[in-house]
Amino acid sequence: MAELNSAVALAEAIRSGKASAVEAVEACLARSAAEQPRINCFTEIYAEDARRQAARIDALPLSERAGLALCGVPIGVKDFTPIAGKLTTFGSKVFRDHIAEHDPVIVRRLKAAGAIILGHTTTPEFAYSGNTQSPLWGITRNPWNSERSAGGSSGGSGAAVAGGCVMLAEGTDMGGSVRIPASLCGVVGLKPSFGRIPMDILRTQYDTLAHFGPLARCVDDAALFLSVCEGPDDSDALSLPALPLAFPVAAAPAKPRLAVSLDLDTHAISDEVSGLFHKLVDDLAKAGAEITWVKTPFSAQSVLDWEDLWAYCFAGDVGHLLEAHREDLDPNVVALIEAGRKLDAVKLRAIEHRRTALWRAFAGLLQGYDALLCPTTCTTAPFADPAQREPDQILPDGRFKSVDMTGHFNLTSSCPVLSLPMGLGASGLPGGLQIVGHRHDDRTVLALAKWIEGFRPPSFPSAA
């Protein structure tokens, strides 16, 4: 199956009878068996279920395969997203025995499109962190270098795709949790426009940070995932109408107008990521893009506001677990809950005021441009072991030193954002580019990403 290195190509080959779903599943199971001990990207692998589903697809007449957009494609689903009848732990000892009763909308749509769920992928407890480690499942590691982090909170999904274990994987993104592992693992990660894919797995329908999105080996695969999963559903009162999308992804504008920022006027960027970013921007300018370096409205305050909102979510959504399960919870989750409980309504409303001003300023900045480009992460993959990682901090010059620069675009959540590999740095590790589009304009973001992908074709660790 090596020549069918994208979900788009594999699904078409299985639909036409030129490839076998059983062979695709067996190839992914073999790769997963080799990689799981090294990178720990799965909580469980559903080998026999996957084989049965694959055999069922191979037995279908070609006429019945025609409507299956993901016909026979092996995928991963994050252990934050329930699968009916399967252990779904949210990365937590508290839910070590929890069997999900229902499929959310996104899982139903993936199954209906012919996707074969190979396994649940790892996440930190309740998806709290940009580094995937949990008290229940341990640390997930980067396929490029197992001493390094796969990112988070969809780190298992990013590692599984980069490691060749699955063609596609589902993730969730509340502050960069799709884009961070995409950047650190060297794959494509899409945070669609807020509401593009119904979000029905939270305790509230009115969260404005959370998105579902794909981790994929190429832009066309991310678009395929989105086309299958997008569209309104009454389970999510804020879900958007479908676009729809076409394949292959439409061409980018002839002379893209790109606003560019290295650091969003906020972050400390490593020399390695800076070099990758400047080289790519230079290549785009030589190819005809109109490049304008811009000043953005973001600040360290934006980061702090996102952190307060994140703590507020934890206090409200899982704070009830603290009294009975404190000893089972990750200490960092306990700290988040306790920080959220200290916030008052007036402070939260003030954050919403600043968030509104930030959105208006950013929407104004985007006028006249097709998209904003900036790095996804400030560094290549840091160490996977938390004890070896540098803490986030605000530097004396006011810049924020951290791994990622993604949460700003959850505050301005209507904007679709795609993380695209920029190539490998001197360390041999990948860096990611964020392409930030206009409100609800997912199609232009995908078109620009497809164009830029031509300058940086996908690459993966050896044998993946």
The CATH class of the domain at 7-255 is identified as Alpha Beta
User: Strands of the largest sheet, in order across it?
Assistant: 1-3-2-8-10-9-16-17-13-11-12
Q: If you consult CATH, what is the topology of the domain at 7-255? A: Amidase signature (AS) enzymes
* Count of individual beta strands: 17
Task: Walk me through what this model shows.
By secondary structure, the chain is α+β, with helices and mostly antiparallel strands. The protein is globular. Helix 2 (21-39) packs antiparallel against helix 3 and helix 10 (300-317) crosses helix 12. It has a domain at 7-255: Amidase signature (AS) domain (Amidase signature (AS) enzymes). It has helices at residues 7-15, 21-39, 47-59, 62-65, 105-112, 155-162, 179-185, 219-229, 271-286, 300-317, 322-325, 331-341, 345-366, 408-411, 442-453; strands at residues 42-45, 74-78, 116-121, 133-134, 138-139, 141-142, 145-149, 168-173, 188-191, 211-216, 257-260, 290-293, 371-375, 393-394, 400-401, 417-424, 430-436.
List the helices and strands and how they pair.
Layout: H1 7-15, H2 21-39, E1 42-45, H3 47-59, H4 62-65, E2 74-78, H5 105-112, E3 116-121, E4 133-134, E5 138-139, E6 141-142, E7 145-149, H6 155-162, E8 168-173, H7 179-185, E9 188-191, E10 211-216, H8 219-229, E11 257-260, H9 271-286, E12 290-293, H10 300-317, H11 322-325, H12 331-341, H13 345-366, E13 371-375, E14 393-394, E15 400-401, H14 408-411, E16 417-424, E17 430-436, H15 442-453
Parallel strand pairs: 2-3, 2-8, 11-12, 11-13
Antiparallel strand pairs: 1-3, 4-5, 6-7, 8-10, 9-10, 9-16, 13-17, 14-15, 16-17
